[in-house]
Amino acid sequence: MNLQSDDFELFGVPRRFAQERSALDARWKELQREAHPDRHSASSAAVQRQAMQWSVRINEAYQRIKDPLRRAAYLCELHGAPIRAEDNTAMPGDFLVQQMEWREALEEAGSVAQVEALEAQVQQARRAALERCAELIDLQQDFAGAACQVRALMFIARFALDIERRLEQLGQ
Amino acid sequence: MALLQISEPGQSPNPHQRRIAVGIDLGTTHSLVAAVRNGVAECLPDGDGRVLLPSVVRYLAEGGRQIGHDATAALHTDARNTIASVKRFMGRGLADIAHASKLPYDLVGSGTDSGMVSIDTAGGVKSPVEVSAEILATLRYRAEDTFNDDLYGAVITVPAYFDDAQRQATKDAAKLAGIHLLRLINEPTAAAIAYGLDNASEGVYAVYDLGGGTFDISILRLTQGVFEVLATGGDSALGGDDYDAALADWVLGQLGLQALTATDKAAARLAARACKEGLTATETVAYAAYLAGIEARFDVKRSDFEAATADLTARSLAAVRRTLRDAQLTREEVQGVVMVGGSTRMPQVQRAVADFFGRAPLTNLNPDEVVALGAAIQANQLAGNNMAGDLLLLDVIPLSLGIETMGGLVERIVARNETIPTAKAQDFTTYKDGQTALALHVVQGERDLVQDCRSLARFELRGIPPMAAGAARIRVTFTVDADGLLSVNAREQISGVEAQIDVKPTYGLSDEQIARMLQEGFATAAQDMQARALVEARVDADRMLLATQSALDADADLLTDDDRAAIDARMQALRILATASLDAAELEAATQALAKATEPFAAQRMNRGIRQALAGKNVQTL
């Protein structure tokens, strides 16, 4: 293992979508206990530089591997199906209609209760898309199909932020 | 026969090699220094038994200065030259200072619209960094007198919500004070260390830290010695000073009076502070100040004070709400709330926090001392005095970092609440044929427009090999280190050429300015500096030798015979110089040579360490 190892190797977990969050959290802390610059502050400058590089790399991997959306995107990339969200807008078939309906619903929602109902709907769609991702990646090894789901999930994540902003406005 | 000396497990083998490491709380109102002695963290008192050093520096016309208690007396009589609450000016421009007209100082901008504010005093124009360095140096001397030894290093605390410029200014102040900075840590995190270790706590805790001039809220998860910050937020311009100002405004409004001169402004505020402190224990306190020679008197009820400051308390709770949201937690999931900072003594603050979380906050440690105590524990560990310690801080960056793009928009590079250290790379290209330089404007904040964020610095990358427009691939890496400080480096990917980078900090001091301040003999005379350089070079050499020896003891099997011989030769050379040489530069060069020779060894060892961490875990889970 070295600084170029992929996130799964670095964390010593199987290269798949299904992961146990608590195991990743515990592994992250164990690795940082070894590598964090604070653990090497009384060592030579060379060791401190190494510690810094490892610590940064471990944090980078943890940020990516603990977040289901980023983990799915990363697995697609590792298997030659990059997401390319900026120039590839292919999404699951019925998702486009869904998007437009949500946008309209958010514009028309006038009360906190209405926005929260929409939020619940969006969260449910998110869970469904993640489950689909798990199937496509872990069972079917269909990474192009999974990349499609990831793009939909990226839209959902952005839309969830819009909902949050709206809730903040209504709350004040 | 001589008896063999055996040291206690986990202790440094040679008591003389125990390094003097302290924690310093550089506060808005007062500052403290603490150290671990006989396994217990405690605050170090001055010669008169006082632990708190008022963060006040008075500059005299003859070039002298008074620091701490000696200076506080002059707050009334020589307000213009007696600088209090200088922390609020650190890394700030003139335009950032709220209510500058109500302060008794001659604040000076830097000519342009940027640059750190400075203060014109009888002793000359002073940067807030210099003023802070006076306070730090006083605490350094206190520690050195206490232990009758040179200080090895210090952990200095900063508000969690301090931005990069404010952190850098604090680091610069340590340098001016001749202090080897082991780490900048966040005040609420330091408080959590002191509390967590004291109460052997596990779970999610909130630290509500209302100091003299800053407010922080941090949400942490404590598990087996790991202090993981989940989110942090706050307001770097909200503190006890604002409560004083609000009270002074309210009372003067009731009396139909105004404070116009520097002396009156200072008197109005000091009276408000005394009144505020009285109201903690009593329901009604008389506000009394001499303004323009006439006594202003008014009986203030606690309810009046609470009403006059209600919006300040509400501001702090709004930040608490935001931070909980960032941590993706509800208030019910917080198991305990720790109160830090003298301003949390105010009954309305305690009540508001208790109401918000639905539980009484923890106050069993002295809110003035808890930050310095936590810093001391961390300093002791960082200095290598506590090899068996398993304390680990995983802190976050409080504010997002971004760069300016076309149209004054911010492109986010590092998101707030990301665990540090962290690094992000971004590729850029040229837009003109033969372009060899590139300018980057780095800002910090959460807004989308550059004008709404804080400008940190402008980086100029030079020495890019000339190519056709759009052909160069310049990878710029933004690194935030464990102190929460940003550095930038850039490399053209095709040619592999490393760009040179000029940094122009927006609200900071340039390297030249710091060098000049150092040369002007801040707090240390010239020959003192030379002697100090030699002492420091020796300490560094010893440290390097010790570190290398313990690395060899643990992992020498990783080395080939040739590598081992090369390292042994360099160690021997350094050992001889360290005892014989009087030339700091020569000694530093030999230390550097050993460091360079051990670099590949260091990489191999780190690899092995990580592998072992994984192997250990695998055995457990099997």
Structural descriptors:
heterodimer, A: 172 residues, mainly alpha, Helix Hairpins, 2 domains, B: 622 residues, alpha+beta, Actin, Chain A, domain 4, Substrate Binding Domain Of DNAk, Chain A, domain 1, Substrate Binding Domain Of Dnak, Chain:A, Domain 2, six-stranded mixed β-sheet, five-stranded mixed β-sheet, 16 helices, 37% helix, disordered N terminus
Explain the layout of strands and helices.
The complex is a heterodimer of chains A (172) and B (622).
Chain A: H1 7-11, H2 21-35, H3 45-66, H4 68-78, H5 95-108, H6 112-139, H7 143-171
Chain B: E1 21-25, E2 30-37, E3 40-43, E4 53-54, E5 56-59, E6 65-67, H1 69-72, H2 74-77, E7 82-84, E8 106-108, E9 118-121, E10 124-126, H3 128-147, E11 153-158, H4 164-176, E12 181-186, H5 187-199, E13 203-210, E14 215-223, E15 226-235, H6 240-255, H7 262-279, E16 284-291, E17 294-301, H8 302-308, H9 310-326, E18 336-340, H10 347-357, H11 370-382, E19 392-394, E20 401-405, E21 409-414, E22 422-428, E23 438-444, E24 454-462, E25 474-480, E26 486-492, E27 500-505, H12 511-519, H13 526-555, H14 561-580, H15 584-597, H16 599-621
Parallel strand pairs in B: 1-11, 11-12, 13-18, 15-19
Antiparallel strand pairs in B: 1-2, 2-3, 2-4, 5-6, 5-7, 8-9, 9-10, 13-14, 14-15, 16-17, 20-21, 20-23, 22-25, 23-24, 24-27, 25-26
Helix pairs in contact in B: 3-4, 5-11, 6-7, 9-10, 13-14, 13-15, 14-15
